[in-house]
Amino acid sequence: MSRSTPSSRKSAVPKPKPGRQVATATSGRSSKSQARSASLRALRAAERRAAIVEAALEEFTARGFAATRLDDVAKRAGVAKGTIYLYFADKETLFQELLRFSLLPLIGELGAPPPPGVSARAMFESFAEVFVREVTETKRADLLRLLISEGQRFPSLAEFHYREVVVHGIAAMRRVIAYGIERGEISNKALLDYPQLLMAPAMLTVVWQGLFNRFAPLDARALLRTHIDIMFDKGNAP
Amino acid sequence: MSRSTPSSRKSAVPKPKPGRQVATATSGRSSKSQARSASLRALRAAERRAAIVEAALEEFTARGFAATRLDDVAKRAGVAKGTIYLYFADKETLFQELLRFSLLPLIGELGAPPPPGVSARAMFESFAEVFVREVTETKRADLLRLLISEGQRFPSLAEFHYREVVVHGIAAMRRVIAYGIERGEISNKALLDYPQLLMAPAMLTVVWQGLFNRFAPLDARALLRTHIDIMFDKGNAP
Amino acid sequence: MSRSTPSSRKSAVPKPKPGRQVATATSGRSSKSQARSASLRALRAAERRAAIVEAALEEFTARGFAATRLDDVAKRAGVAKGTIYLYFADKETLFQELLRFSLLPLIGELGAPPPPGVSARAMFESFAEVFVREVTETKRADLLRLLISEGQRFPSLAEFHYREVVVHGIAAMRRVIAYGIERGEISNKALLDYPQLLMAPAMLTVVWQGLFNRFAPLDARALLRTHIDIMFDKGNAP
Amino acid sequence: MSRSTPSSRKSAVPKPKPGRQVATATSGRSSKSQARSASLRALRAAERRAAIVEAALEEFTARGFAATRLDDVAKRAGVAKGTIYLYFADKETLFQELLRFSLLPLIGELGAPPPPGVSARAMFESFAEVFVREVTETKRADLLRLLISEGQRFPSLAEFHYREVVVHGIAAMRRVIAYGIERGEISNKALLDYPQLLMAPAMLTVVWQGLFNRFAPLDARALLRTHIDIMFDKGNAP
DNA sequence: CATGAATGAGACTTCATTCAT
DNA sequence: TATGAATGAAGTCTCATTCAT
């Protein structure tokens, strides 16, 4: 192996669509209705962009930033090399955009307003469930790992996630903790200073699954259940 | 910059030794005493090797595997580029060797025989203290982050660490947990199934400090203290 | 910047019309009067062509042939990139056409029939004045520089200008010289063999102004006046 | 033709040495004498550098800066593509260095101290002769044309030549003119203000030979002789 | 006719690895 | 054993040209 990639050359990641994309049959031209054709074009553009992002996700998560070849991204997306540059200024922009906007929706989902009158434990159980369903069992886990791996080398990216994701996540955790303390579900008030402790097992799961799942699969749900049992006193639960 | 690294070129990492290493004048050969000169040479060789590994550590942790240039490693180590190949087969070998043997000693330290009659909490407190002192506040934290970042792309490396480090660590955690349950310091027996929970905050600290310390410094010791307070019932502590 | 241009990317040459050209609303077709609409269309076509040539002039003179991007020409002309190909076969054709027809009119102006009975000196003074007014102080100087710069690499272009411009210019110079000799204004008959000497200062001016005007502005008119004083004996002048 | 070059692809300029350079038989290693081997290496480096510069000269003068491929320069120099980067930072540096140092020696030659008691005409005749012999009939003419062609697009280059070459040349011309006026060889004192007029025919020759020599060869020596006859009164000549 | 998204060949540049000294 | 000059494969990015709309 010559340059720098650890594993096999030529796309260790299996590529699903070898030829040109299916293109969802746009060849039939109605020849009038400029507006529709314009929106069609816009639609096509959006599709292409999405294809590129999707392909980039696969390649970047499989190889990391430096070892990913835009050539491979293009092939996987079913576009020419130059096409990528119609949508993204350069490799780094594609990479950052991918990471920037992929984890954002999570915050919305995780911060969904809890049903009233519910226990703190139930609130966090809901968090955990969403995390498992929407991250652990999804490509988002790969994205999170990618962020953990490359964040240090892209300070602006780290900052973005700190501000847009982490700060809100920490705040949410703190609210749950405060609520739990208030309701007597959580006894240790120092937890308020380290709300990260609530998320630590979730993060560990993501890292573990990336590195060691091959050798020792980890049941995220069960692990988090145990975590919850430890963090919350059962007293006030039904 | 064209290829792949996000930040500045030309060694973002400050290099301590600008000129060629002092090299302690080896050119004048005394021409007798082959045995001593042989051992001297071996010593010199060992030093060189160590210098290369040390330099590689700096560069790899600062840039990751792919973006690190052997040229920079050589410069930092004070040797010629070709010299690296006298000690390591190639870039990947150097990288793996670096990671393979750098974290091993930890297991010994962490697995040091606990003083008899001590509480489970005290045992884990000792663990935590060693971890903070020997990892968090050391270059080992960088190595751990490097492992987390690149492990997925070097399966053999991940396997090595799983077998040589993680398995033992998990076993040690489990022993502490069992002991804690036995002594009544730990009430939740399910923890025995997920000893990772004991380590999760430590790992979170390492990741956090790599990504977010700039924006929100994290006090590893205090965080772990809180963690310990939660995991261990205080009843039986002195 | 990676490829080839020395200075700043993104059009160092200031572009006058930022948005799309006004285009004088051609979309509403009155659907009758085909003849007039045809001529209108022809007019529109001629305008477009002219806009492209004008834009090409700016860009080519600013960057040279190879470093000029048709994309920039199109933007500056207010047309789409593809439109250029409706009027010109390719980049080189556009370039050559630009150069071919831009300098031709000069020959007419420079070869204008001199008022009868005038001195040779006056004839050449008139040449010089036209040259200063119509070349030196005009974009034509840029075109001349462009020809000088790229002519060697476009042999057919050099040949064209030799035949269509230079030959006539040389002939005109020779006529002036012969006339001057005949009238006793020029004493050195060898000048007839090197009529280029009459034009040399004009050419030097164009080159100098392209390269060094920043550091040492050159007054074309005054320089040529001195040149004339040297070439023509003052005896017979009024 | 695809990208940008006007004429034929694949090196219009004939390449003399297809294989690896002759390398002047350095294979015989004397195995001792480090100093000599070091100087040998230095010698080799100097040769290589020279080969690259020489090749670059050919290619740049044949195609201009933008259209020259470093690949071709490397092939012509008999080195690998990467080798160029051991000696020059990038394409532009190679180009500028080529131009910067190739014309400098001229100033020395042209500014050689004139024999005492000689006429101004003889001094300038000597200038002219050196110019013809060392520029017109040499590759330096190509370099001068290259400078004229690309100077506008490399402001620093134009400035360098203005300061290092032109200023001195102009000063030398002015000295000759002053001397000629003093000796009564030159009558028009205004020439002191436009010493460029003395050089104009030389420059015209270089440009002409680049563009039109194919169609109308120009005898530089004869043209300059006529020029001299016109500029200098014959009175004081023998 | 006009558009401009898409293409893909090709240029510059980097850097792991080799090998003569 | 150590060196570091040399190599050349490979990657990123550009831009002339095409073509469906």
Largest sheet of chain A: none
Determine the N-to-C terminus distance of chain A.
60 Å
Run of helices and strands of chain A: HHHHHHHHHH
Report the helical percentage of chain A. Answer: 55-70%
What's the topology here?
Four copies of one chain form a homotetramer.
Chain A: H1 34-63, H2 70-77, H3 81-87, H4 91-102, H5 104-110, H6 120-136, H7 140-150, H8 155-183, H9 196-211, H10 220-231
Helix pairs in contact in A: 1-2, 1-7, 2-3, 5-8, 6-8, 6-10, 9-10
The first copy, chain A, binds a DNA duplex (21 and 21 nucleotides) through α1 and α3.
InterPro entries (chains A, B, C, D): Homeodomain-like_sf, HTH-type_TetR-like_transc_reg, HTH_TetR, Tet_transcr_reg_TetR-rel_C_sf, TetR_C
Pfam family, one (chains A, B, C, D): TetR_N
DNA-binding region (chains A, B, C, D): 69-88
Give an overview in words.
Four copies of one chain form a homotetramer. Chain A has 238 residues and is mainly alpha-helical. Chain A folds into two domains: 25-88, Arc Repressor Mutant, subunit A, CATH 1.10.10.60; 91-235, Tetracycline Repressor, domain 2, CATH 1.10.357. Chain A has ten helices and no strands. In chain A, helix 1 (34-63) crosses helix 2 (70-77) and helix 1 crosses helix 7 (140-150). Chain A is elongated and about 60 Å long. Mean pLDDT of chain A is 85; it is low at 1-12 and 15-33. Chains in contact: A-B, C-D. Chains C and D meet through helix 7, helix 8, helix 9 and helix 10 of C and helix 7, helix 8, helix 9 and helix 10 of D. Chain A binds a DNA duplex (21 and 21 nucleotides) through residues 2-4, 27, 29, 31, 34, 37-38, 40-41, 44-45, 48, 69-71, 79-86, 90-91. Chains A, B, C, D: Residues 46-106 form the HTH tetR-type domain.
